[in-house]
Prior knowledge:
heterodimer; A: alpha+beta; Aldehyde Oxidoreductase, domain 4; seven-stranded mixed β-sheet; five-stranded mixed β-sheet; 26 strands; B: Ubiquitin-like (UB roll); DNA polymerase, domain 1; 5 helices; 30% helix; 16% strand; disordered C terminus
Amino acid sequence: MTTQVAETTTNIIGTRMKRVEDPSMITGAAKYLDDLKLPGMAYVAILRSPYAHALIKGIDTAKAAAQPGVIGVYTGKDFEHLPPLPCAWQASGTENFVATPRALEIDRVTFTGAGVAAVVAETRVAAEDALAHIEVDWDPLEVVVDVERAVEDGAPQLHEAAKGNIVMDWDCGDAAATDKALAEAEVVVEQRLVNQRLLPTPIDVRGAAATYEPATGAYTVWMTSQCPHIMRLLMTAFVFGIPETKIRCISPRVGGGFGTKIFLYPEYVLVAALADKTGRPVKWMESRRENYVATTHGRDHVTYIKVGAKRDGTITALKARTLANLGGILSTIAPGIPTTLYGRMLSGAYRIPNIHCQVLGVYTNTGMVDAYRGAGRPEATYVVERAVDLVARELELDPVEVRRRNFIQPDDFPYDPGILAGLSYDTGDYEKALTRALELVGYEDFRKQQEAARKEGRYLGIGFSTYVEICGAAPSAWIGTGGQGWGASMWESANVRVHLTGKVVVTTGTHSHGQGHETTVTQVVASELGVPPEDVTVELGDTQGAPFGYGTYASRSAAVGAVAVYNALQRIKHKARRIAAHMLEANVDDVEFEEGRAFVKGSPSSAKTIQEIAGAAALAYDLPPGEEPFLDDTYYYDPPNCTFPFGTHIAVVEVDSETGEVDLQRYVAVDDVGKVINPMIVDGQVQGGIVQGVAQALWEGAVYDEDGQLLTSSLMEYAVPKATSIPRLQVERTETPTDVNPLGVKGAGETGTIASTPAVVNAVMDALAPLGIRHLDMPLTPERVWTAMRQAKS
Amino acid sequence: MIPITLTVNGVRHEAEVEPRTLLVDFLRDDLDLTGTKIGCDTSVCGACTVHLDGRAVKSCTVLAVQADGADVTTIEGLATRGALHPLQEAFWEQHGLQCGFCTPGMIMTGVELLGSNGDRLTDPEIRRGLEGNLCRCTGYQNIVAAVREAAAGPKAVTP
């Protein structure tokens, strides 16, 4: 299943090309969802539950309907004919007790922020004003917010089918072998680790707009989506029960997604249904508060680990039991994240012979939890990288040496960690990235500085994260229904058309929400066909006229999407050679295609350019016998394996002994994402990702009170990093191509977020080691650190 | 409804607005200048930053009636006769944007920050100057580099 890494000559792959997306974005011309204005458009506002757990006894909409500008007021009963939304990725090999949202809830809410009524009005303010006049007769119920409390006897029950609030009880690995290895281990380290809930916070919030044409029964739905084709599939097949052809989904420019815009949300269905009901184009755009209460959250695990090791630091066993808080109701792929993308990555970069992981998915009266940048892998990396540090601390060994002792070695690849359900890590050289990162940070010097600082009563620390992650999702048979439980496939499509003039149009099922896919794909096309980059147009985000594709998440758009483009280009090049051979009156086997020119071997001066060949193909006046007109190819690429980027991240901190404040002084990252198409874009992805991961370690956390009210429901309370929060990051790379795909690319969108969180926590724990502080849960706010320091000193 | 007259990007507009209408909504909904973005409800994110009589303001914190008689510049008015402002060029060159949503506000704040002696700005001063604008994609490093490049003129800058 392996292929050779591409060798091209007119190669702008690997170069720092400025982004083709940017001119419209830096001038304010780029159109995002909220910039859409349709003729005759009406506006939707949604009444949301103020209670975290309540029965709806009745809703009186009469007063609201009489407000100025109001076109109609609707409740869940108006959409009773529409089924609850699908849960498209359920945990594999176990029963899932699924409860999913409806367009509007009818008789019960299980989190604050669930939609229960909607106003359609002539203006947005009229719709919002009218919400205050809807009267709901609520019957509040007992609330449970804490995930450990939710699984106890006597806890309030959220959904009848889910006894004990358990969504699913899933495991991977060998429980008996792991218990035996732990019993025989020379040392065993135990720890409870909290991976707190995060609010993903794209600056562009969610929205949707829709039109409905009664004559054809066809909807057009605009939405902030990372995967419009999946949205169309889920809406047509699972909610409206109409053919795919009756909904066109358009996702315009999307101002950041970070996972939250993968999912089918109730509002998208609601807006489409309202376009039908009102006969008007309608639009809904959430507020930041709605984004915080009603858009999905991320992480939220409580994990108990036991790690077994030999005295020399060799890890012999890892056992993890995780409670994954999935919120009051399930989002589209919620059960898949803490299972396949978490438990199966618990070997990290290490040869751990015995692993067992049990995950309980749990309902609580909180907002929905689903994929957030990294999605399962940050949680796994946090467990593994903290575990390694705890072993090092216990044995008084250097955390770097413990990592080295356990690393999977370059000649171990492909490496089967035994818990990946048949997949193996593709390629890697973990030591190389670690060595380079240690050089950059000046490790030996740092330890000397640290020792000197400790004598002065200063708390310096260094922390490591030698992570590996899984991306490039995914082989369809592995991820799909008979495998890991995702209810469809995960190949990707690309269509490449070379027009009569030699201008190239590419459509692919992936979508960009900041990652620069138009530029990256342009570089692949320009390199392969030898056309100028300005002759390439990349069209994304519209299901009409584009081949079906699965969209953007799991760092798959280069490793799967761009490979589909690359493979289509190979077939186009082959056809171009056949047509050129005809034009040159030569045998096709004697014709080469290089740098946009086809010529008979040895005679490069009499060549046909790609533009001439495209023209001949399009006009079709004189083609080889049996040859179809036009240079056009569609490729559906199903990857043979996932890809496994890796690297070393190092954080250097000083903890203020008076205030407990953590000063992140230096940050060094050496990532290996395989071959790189555009280093500028990859560096940008890594930098942004690191800052999101650092933010989890130090500042961010969603806080619910015991009544299920989200206390961090605006940017006034939720601590998103500012420009002053972070030092300049040192970002470098090693390059170990994958053998999974012909471009050699692994994926770069999530490495920063996955790697950085434990590096920072490990650094703070290293700083606090003289005080005997072994572990603190995130975020490591001054208050939390100061309290721990004070307790340790007293 | 209250009548207002203001100049936006060099064009004079007369309009009637509700007293509660925010400047950002007036620009986006009434004038169709959608380059100015809305990212929060609480004047924190800075995506709506425009220039009001030459000063960078968050246009979600200004009532349209308060802009009566004012001269407003939005991101659409920053390029002159098709030539990008040096800071727009620098954002492009330094990869100072990813999703582009915070970018108009970030650039409008940056332009004010550059002022007349931008070449004297240190990196910590640039970071402090951008503190009122949130970006979730870039981690700010390349935004800082862009401001530094625009401040220094067309010289090579290490990101």
